[in-house]
Amino acid sequence: MGIFSRRQTAVMDLDPADGTGLAAAEHAPRGAALDPALRALTGRWTIDRPHSRIGFSVRHAMVTTVRGAFADYDSALYFDGARPAESRAELVIRVASVDTGVEQRDAHLVGRDFFDARRFPEMTFRSTSTVHEGAESFRMTGDLTIRDVTRPVELQLDYLGSVMDPFGFERAGFDGTTTIDRTEWGLVYNQRLKAGGTMVSEKVRLQFDISAVRATS
Fold first, then answer.
1. Residue 103: enclosing H or E segment and its boundaries?
2. pLDDT digits over 65-88, tens only?
């Protein structure tokens, strides 16, 4: 597979005309100047899975960090470089695709103590508003659903640039991060340590390292 291969890229339809999840333009901060080059990026995009990572990190036993990612998901992105408030995103993630590099740990995560993948096979994120915070930084608010529990989250989203790759596909890069308390979504499993503290932190950092490809009609 070539370095710019688009295999394993799943696309969802997201109609910019339906108004779903739009924020009022007046919510954008005053004086946040937009780069004119961003206007050219307006349109529908999809995440290129082989060159992206939808991941997380969490403290383990109070002394180290475990990192993992989800390999199977569908995506729909609409970016408006002139009116960022109309930008939005949707992700549908199959939780059984979680990969932390340890098979036994992955089996525990998809079991009843955590994701309970048999009952709740998908985790979703659907944006509800996007605000330009200045330069190439944005704040995207959305609804995160895990185990049928839906709660709002805020992503810090940074635009990294765009390029035309050697195969003629237009690409744009974004980094997104947020930290959640997993217990708010019913992920309450834990073990106490004799010295104090817990085996698994309640705080989980979600990381979105995105290489987006402009969707063809």
1. helix 103-110
2. 999 999 999 999 999 988 999 999
